[in-house]
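User: quick one
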Amino acid sequence: VGSQTAPSLDDTEIAERIHAGDRSAEAEMIRRYESGLRAIATVRAGREIASDLVQDTLTVAIGNLRRGEWRAQGPLPAYLTAILRNLVRRSLARARETRDGAETSDPERLPSLNADPHAAAERQEARLRVRRALMCLTDPHREVVLRHYFEGESAEEIARRMGTPRGTVLSRLHYARLELLEVMNREGTAGHKVQGSETS
Amino acid sequence: VTVTCSEPERIAQAREYVLGALSAASAEAFEDHLAGCAGCAQRVLEQTRGLDALVDDLLGVGSVSDRFVRAAETSPGARRRVDLWAVLARHVLSPAAACAYLVLLLAVVPAFWLLVSSRGRGREGASAPAGQGRDTIAQGAAPRPPGPPASSSLEGAVRLLPPVLKVFGEETTRGVTAPRQGSPVGRGENAREPSPEPAPPESSPRPLRLEWPSPGGSLLLELHTGIDEEELRDPASAFVVEVWKGERLLWSQHVAGQSFERDGTLRITLSTERLSSAAVYTLAVRLDKPGDPFDREVLFRKSISASRRP
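Assistant: Done. Structure below.
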């Protein structure tokens, strides 16, 4: 269940006040959208670099609003998420270049992140692989995994809600982990083959 | 004024969004909502913590870049396939290995002939042990027996074969690690809380010394854990293989009981590239059986010191 604070200022007013140099309007925009942007950045790029991306997004957006470059062409949240998505794409591309050994001479493209972008990209890649592997699980296995890891339910709770013995829940959880590892290993092996054929 | 965002579809969307199950258009539409909804944002962040807990469980507590040991494959069938083809591709089908086999053949046949002929003549001391070169490699099995070194051609040839090190654990007292309290399943009270940090296993008084020729490669370790077959076959049992460097946990991996041999042997591959010389590492296998009084107990432990032979 979520909650959304009704704005005392609408987005157009916020934009106009920021353009006029009102710092409190900037603070209001940050307060209103920071947590949502952080959630998006966490999903798209990983929590390791989410804070940096949110900060960069808000910096870019406030700079644009100060210059009056946003004229309420669309909802302000959509404008902010569009900036964030672009920054995520650039960040991931930069991490890939770093991993592949490419060098950059553009100072604007030098990593400015606190976290190690290469490690963050690897971690995010692992998350994506787990996500894809989850889709390959059978329904009973996936349900147990989602309830346990995503809802924080104990084996007893899961057993009660699903009407199955606790041992069955533990067994499903156990075999679901094995299945996930197998799918991820298969995917990793296939990835190597694809990479090898491309380079040869 | 607070607008409640309680639509069930939003709640379902949050999970689908985290799982990557939404189409690109749906994901962007949800993000436009998410940017301004603190409640949905909190829910999404909780779900990402669940995903991270799952990733940690599957890949171990270390980051992916810290992974320098690959655990044995998760199913015995997969392990057999990988072992067979890996050995064939790496060691049998390569030209270097073929040359080594030729040298080995040229060395072994005369040695065998000499051995047979010397026994026939009743002489002693001519039984140059063909297995001595292997003992040099399998340092985990037993200390090298005293005696004359094997012939250099034989030793050099054998070293090209995949080194399989038998590692026997030291005696471990049950109950070294205190059982966790009140955790019925999973890591910690629930998946969102960090796991309690496992205590490092005690280091061995005499670590097993591993050496490998430069530039190294992979070592196949056979951990003779001695874990009961009954424990291994229990579906509720899982195990965690850990590599410690002093007090620091470098790597861990969940391993199912199926990955062990019936006698409790577990094979892991150790990549020597990430091992530092003159450092002592401790290999440990813990029980991961939530609810069991001996959950997280160290069942196997062996310290190794690694050095690269110039």
